[in-house]
Design goal:
- Helix 5 packs parallel to helix 7.
- The strands form two sheets. An eight-stranded parallel β-barrel has the order 1-2-3-4-5-6-7-8, surrounded by seven helices.
- It is α/β, with parallel strands linked by helices.
- The chain has eleven helices and ten strands.
- Helix 5 links the parallel strand 5 and strand 6.
Length: about 290
C-alpha cells in the first residue's frame, strides 16, 4: 500500500498515562493512534506515560492501526528522553509538536538515528505557529517528514484568532497554505482537532469542510468522533460505482477512437479518470483494514 494512500481518516490522541485508555484503544476503529506524552500527561506522570507508550507501540496488539508517539519538545525536560525511548519502539513515527524549522527537524532526526530508530521511522510534524505556516514548504520537504498535523488550537491562539460556534473561517487561509505545501511535496496532511466532543453535528460539518479542502483525515480527541470521521473520509458506494462507470466509459470511448469523451452528459478527460482511480484505490486501502 502506498504511504500516501494508507487510510488516516481518523487519528486518535490517547493519553499514554492512562492504561485503561490504552487498552480501550485496541477496540476503537481509528485508522491511527497517537500515544500522547505531551499535553494530555501531567509532569509527574511523564516517565510512566513514556514507558506505557513504548510498550503499547511495540505490543502488536493494535491490529492494523498505525501507531505513533507524540513526544515532548526538545526544549522541555522530557523531550530528549522521549525521543530516545520512542526510537527503541516499533512506532511508525514520532509526532513532534511546534515544529518551526528544518534545523529543528534535523535535530529530531539525528537524535532518532543516534538512539537506534528503525530505518522506516518517520516524523509527523505539527504545524502550530505563524513561523511554521510561513516555513511549511521547506519543512514538509524534509526527507523524514511523512505527515503534517495541524495544531489548530495552538495556531488559533498564536494568531489571536477566535474559534466559535460559527466555525473556524479565520484559520482557513493558514490551513490552505499548509495543505498546498503538503500536496506540492506529495505528503499526507491531517486536519486539527474539534474541541466540543458533544456537538457531533458541528463536528461532522467541520469534517466535511476538511475533506472538501483536501485533507487526508483528522486528528481526534474522543473515541465518539471516530465513526463520523471514518464515514466522511471514505468513498460511498455511490462514489465507487460512479468511479468505475466513469473509467469504463472513458476506456470504451478511447478504444472507439473518439476524440471527445462524455459521461452522464459531461465532457471528461484524463484528470477525471485519475480522480476516479484514486477513489477506487482509497476504497481498496480502507477495505484492507477490515
Amino acid at each position: 500500500m502506498s504511504a500516501s494512500l494508507r487510510p488516516r481518516r481518523s487519528v486518535l490522541y490517547m493519553p499514554a498515562a492512562n492504561e485503561r485508555a490504552l487498552e480501550k484503544a485496541k477496540t476503537i476503529a481509528a485508522d491511527a493512534i497517537i500515544f500522547d506524552l505531551e499535553d494530555a500527561v501531567a509532569p509527574d506522570a511523564k516517565e510512566a506515560a513514556r514507558a506505557n507508550a513504548v510498550a503499547a507501540a511495540s505490543s502488536g496488539e493494535y491490529g492494523s492501526r498505525e501507531l505513533t508517539i507524540r513526544c515532548n519538545g526538545l526544549d522541555t525536560p522530557w523531550g530528549v528522553d522521549d525521543l530516545a525511548a520512542a526510537a527503541q519502539s516499533d512506532a511508525a513515527a514520532v509526532v513532534i509538536p511546534k515544529v518551526s524549522s528544518v534545523a529543528y527537524l534535523d535535530q529530531v532526526s539525528d537524535r532518532l538515528d543516534a538512539a537506534g530508530a528503525h530505518a522506516d521511522m518517520k516524523i509527523w510534524a505539527m504545524i502550530e505557529t505563524p513561523t511554521a505556516i510561513l516555513d511549511v514548504r521547506a519543512m514538509v520537504a524534509h526527507w523524514r517528514v511523512s505527515v503534517l498535523v495541524m495544531g489548530t488550537n495552538d495556531l488559533a491562539r498564536e494568531v489571536r484568532s477566535v474559534l466559535s460556534a460559527a466555525g473556524r473561517h479565520p484559520l482557513v487561509p493558514h490551513l490552505a497554505t499548509a495543505l498546498l505545501a503538503a500536496r506540492e511535496a506529495d505528503k499526507v496532511i491531517l486536519d486539527g482537532v474539534f474541541n466540543d466532543v458533544k456537538d457531533l453535528d458541528a463536528f461532522r460539518v467541520e469534517c466535511v469542510q476538511g475533506f472538501e479542502m483536501g485533507f487526508d483525515g483528522k486528528t481526534l480527541i474522543h473515541p465518539g468522533q471516530v465513526d463520523i470521521c471514518n464515514d466522511v473520509w471514505a468513498p460511498s458506494e455511490a462514489d465507487i460505482e460512479n468511479a468505475r462507470d466513469l473509467i469504463a466509459a472513458f476506456d470504451a470511448a478511447i478504444a472507439e477512437g473518439k476524440g471527445v469523451v462524455t459521461y452522464k452528459g459531461r465532457m471528461i478527460e484524463n484528470l477525471h479518470v485519475t480522480n476516479a482511480q484514486r477513489i477506487l484505490a482509497v476504497a481498496d486501502a480502507i477495505a484492507t483494514l477490515s
